[in-house]
Amino acid sequence: MWELEDERYDPKPQNFDVQIERQETYLRTKRETFKIKEQKHLEMEMKYISGIHALNLRCSLETCGDWHASGIQWKNLTVRESSDSVFGDYGIEDNSSVPGHPGNHKAANHIRALLDLVADGAFGYAQGMKNELICNESYTPEVFSKLLLLKNSPRWLKIKEFIGKEYGVPWLHFLREHGYDR
What we know:
Elements (H helix, E strand, L loop, with lengths): L2 E2 L2 E2 L7 H29 L2 E3 L1 H5 L23 E3 L10 E4 L9 E4 L1 H10 L3 H4 L2 H6 L5 H8 L8 H12 L1 H9 L5
Antiparallel strand pairs: 1-2, 3-4, 5-6
Helix pairs in contact: 7-8
């Protein structure tokens, strides 16, 4: 005997056609649910340019980004997959101008590129995040809330320390307000 959502299958049913119809409906629903989940997963997956390369591209934010574009090796771009990050597709934009790569490309905006660098522990590349790369205090609350998504990272203590050096007291206040000041 097997169970079908709280119903027992009776090998000698009173109404066999009804049981077959219920089983087919159940399987059809399962297949449709799987297709919806698969479609949502595919929609969430997105390859994009990030890291130092994205910092040297224009984005829609009012941020400075980096200005060493001529010193960057553009042949091998830093390409990531959005579904591999706690940030999902946040901060990924269409960017049509990537040196040496014709066509339209997805790229992290400056904040997302920095978040990716910090998440990877690439603090040397993210150094100057607040004053030299973002250069706009109005984004600080957004940056802090996104950084909080990294609280379960094995690098969390190093991330807190790095951001503390970049942002100082406002970061400490933010952590205290959200219960992460320990």
